[in-house]
């Protein structure tokens, strides 16, 4: 812990994850718009996209680690502090992206009444803009937190391990086997006993973050997860290439948030940074830690605004670019998008009203 009570490794994981999110969205266009799987641009986009897939699971893990350690005194206080600000951000950014998309991107002639009706439908059904799904998911989980936190407090470490093992079997292993069988036989397998709601979805990552934050794994388990994580970082782009070649189009089997390789990447990375906490705190001076804390606090806001910045810049990697050109252009544009997003957030944070309306009061 540093002097302002921030946790360095958590802050660094947040920063790494928000950069990874920008990479995911930046590289998506090349991956989805071309089936030339042997082009330099596709391989660069596939490589960077693959190794950035930990971003969303790690965000959920960080959220679980941080929020499940707090003492929730009342539902009203929790909703006022945690849920309502997210709802305000969801409404605001859905409106911003909705207006931008309708009247700037597709040049719609929709009148105000038609826009309101269309916007309301899209808001309810999560169709306003691609990255806002995360808000729907995190709000849904936060609505369960007052009860989940009581469940967590009543559980021993062994109980949590049992939950996480069963969640892994249902949400990760079963899904992987099902996807593999479908690609081999074009037949879905459905095992009804595996449909256990409490052991499905992002809630598992949420509780996993709490577990990894509070408990230390045995050395053998750590080493196994490290090694599986490293293998997964290298395996994901290669497996995606061969799966896509087989399908004829981009195959996202190893890209999904519940992909077995994404799971091991995320867990391995979280454990690695946790293990380096003491060393990071000692190596980084106070000013650097303060900057890291500042960027980390802005990560949620950067998440909301970065696609608007990216669309305005309109910088893309050309499909026929050489390998060095594709890599260099990607790195430069990612850096520019991140920097502009961060500076914009900090400028907007000068107004408390703007901060609350746009970012739910987050800095």
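Sequence proposed for the structure above (363 residues):
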């Amino acid at each position: 812990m540093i002097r302002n009570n921030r946790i360095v490794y958590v802050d660094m994981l947040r920063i790494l994850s928000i950069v990874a999110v920008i990479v995911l969205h930046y590289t998506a266009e090349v991956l989805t718009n071309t089936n030339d799987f042997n082009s330099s641009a596709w391989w660069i986009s596939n490589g960077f996209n693959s190794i950035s897939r930990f971003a969303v699971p790690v965000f959920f893990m960080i959220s679980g680690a941080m929020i499940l350690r707090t003492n929730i005194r009342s539902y009203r206080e929790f909703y006022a502090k945690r849920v309502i600000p997210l709802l305000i951000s969801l409404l605001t950014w859905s409106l911003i992206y909705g207006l931008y998309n309708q009247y700037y991107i597709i040049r719609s002639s929709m009148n105000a009444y038609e826009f309101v009706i269309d916007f309301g439908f899209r808001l309810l059904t999560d169709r306003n803009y691609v990255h806002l799904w995360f808000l729907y998911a995190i709000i849904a989980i936060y609505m369960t937190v007052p009860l989940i936190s009581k469940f967590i407090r009543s559980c021993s470490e062994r109980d949590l391990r049992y939950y996480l093992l069963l969640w892994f079997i249902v949400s990760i292993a079963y899904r992987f086997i099902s996807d593999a069988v479908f690609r081999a036989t074009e037949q879905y397998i459905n095992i009804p006993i595996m449909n256990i709601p409490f052991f499905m979805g992002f809630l598992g990552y949420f509780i996993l973050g709490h577990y990894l934050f509070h408990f230390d794994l045995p050395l053998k388990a750590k080493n196994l997860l490290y090694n599986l994580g490293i293998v997964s970082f290298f395996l994901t782009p290669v497996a995606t290439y061969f799966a896509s070649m087989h399908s004829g189009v981009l195959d996202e089997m190893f890209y999904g948030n519940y992909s077995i390789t994404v799971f091991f990447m995320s867990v391995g990375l979280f454990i690695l940074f946790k293990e380096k906490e003491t060393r990071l705190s000692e190596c980084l001076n106070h000013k650097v830690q303060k900057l890291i804390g500042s960027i980390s606090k802005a990560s949620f806001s950067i998440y909301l605004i970065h696609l608007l910045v990216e669309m305005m810049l309109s910088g893309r990697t050309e499909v026929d670019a050489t390998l060095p050109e594709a890599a260099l252009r990607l790195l430069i544009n990612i850096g520019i998008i991140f920097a502009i997003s961060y500076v914009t957030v900090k400028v907007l944070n000068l107004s408390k009203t703007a901060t609350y309306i746009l970012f739910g009061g987050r800095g």
